[in-house]
Fold this protein.
Amino acid sequence: MSTASAPPSLPEGRYGRPQRPSRRWRRWAYAVVAVAVGGAVAWIGYLNLGAAPITAERVTFQELPGNAMTVSLNVTRDEPGRPGVCIVRTRDISGAESGRREVYVPPGATRVDAVVRSIDQPVTADVYGCSYDIPEYLSRS
């Protein structure tokens, strides 16, 4: 009759703690997740902060009677044959926005002039932004 004997136990405290299986796979998993999140953040930043396909720069502005201002813009775009829209605004002496206008930019145009009416006496004008998404009421056929 043979009896199954239990493996011999080691004297406690003599050989240190028993070793656990390696957790190296966790490090790799964390690294993969970190690279994926970093890549997603970089892609979103590129989309939101990258070069705009259409931009405008204010060249001149001149105050007109009746709380209005004429503004001249130089428009730069990656597709010159495509129409666009730019938002131009005026500011009063306190720096608050006092007038705003969406300006249609026809295909091929590089310089656009616009008159912006203001609720207070305007002292400066600037370009808020430009886009190829033209509102229906501005589109011209």
